[in-house]
Amino acid sequence: MEYLAENSKDSVVSLSDPSFSNAITRWQKQHGRHNLPWQGTRDAYNIWLSEIMLQQTQVTTVVSYYQRFLVSFPNIWLLAAAPTEEVMAHWSGLGYYARARNLHHCAQRIVAEYSGIFPDDPMVLKNLPGIGRSTAAAIAVFSYGIRAAILDGNVKRVFARTFGINFYPGLKTIEDAMWLRATALLPLQDVESYTQGLMDLGSKICIPRKPQCHLCPISQRCVALNSSRTSELPVRKPKKNLLQKSICMLMITDQYQVILEQRPNHGIWGGLLSLPEICPGKNFDARLDTAVSAFGSIELCQPLKPFMHVFTHIKLCVSPFQVFLRKRHNSVIHEKYCWYSIDKLPDAPLPAPVKKILMGVLFEKNLFS
């Protein structure tokens, strides 16, 4: 079965080069990765989970998350039926949290629409939440042996250097041309080894800085190497100044509990729990009193060490404050807030920097003992 790129077949033929795929495949079989937890299986659920986790995240980080996730959600039916907060808790610290929300939605759709069985058609897979064209191809290749082309960030870098592509790969016309080439270079056999080889080459050898060109199986044909431009290719995305946002986070504690806020599903840290926020600036004390009044009256408020967290589009400057209550209200006035037991914080679905500061302060004060 074969799924060609949505371009002219004549162009695909003109770009084909069996020696390229042969070199990649031979190298992968001898030097590539063969012992990753999601290898050696045709289970589409396991492969899909690994591919989603590997989006924007290195293998070394993913392995432990992947293994823990499968212990709690060993199949797609259990994942689909799980509460959202439980799924988000297992993703806490892995970043790019939209992946976790899409993962959960995708599981629910596959159970509802496909009886829990992943489609083998990458054109169907790519329209499911969080998958996209390259991830769909990888799932189809490794699960079903389908002949389909991948084109993730690592593969774009390999192609840009090997073929001397002098334009930013994120441009639509350039990306379309790279998809055409990716399809043209697909081998007739050993598509799994070839696909894994491209992934391994991009993550182990053709790395962004100081690529290991002496170990590369296609170095002789690499335009970037032969023209001393490995540091220039791929062409980088034009830089944009990051927006900067400043907030104050309130760690409101009473006895062995802390107030947490359920964040909306969209935006920064979407779907996770976090600390209540207020903006810095004028009338801070009055606004602090108003924000805390929903939970009780302030006994003491002390600043904690500020920190900065950089996202792809924004630089978040956080000034945390620990607030001790003189008198706590018996209930909170808004359903998005809850008193959370401190001993449950290690497994809470919290953003990594928020969990770090909570654990640091509360451990230091021996509230876990």
3D structure, described in words:
- Strands 1, 2, 3, 4, 5, 6, 7 and 8 form an 8-stranded mixed β-sheet that branches.
- This protein has helices at residues 9-15, 18-31, 44-54, 59-72, 76-81, 84-91, 98-114, 122-125, 132-144, 153-162, 172-184, 191-205, 223-226, 284-292, 352-364, and strands at 243-254, 257-262, 273-274, 277-278, 296-303, 307-310, 314-328, 337-341.
- It is elongated.
- The protein starts with 8 loop residues before the first helix and ends in a 5-residue tail after the last helix.
- With 369 residues, it is α+β, with helices and mostly antiparallel strands.
- Strand 6 (307-310) and strand 7 (314-328) form a beta hairpin.
- Helix 2 packs across helix 12.
- 43% of the residues lie in helices and 15% in strands.
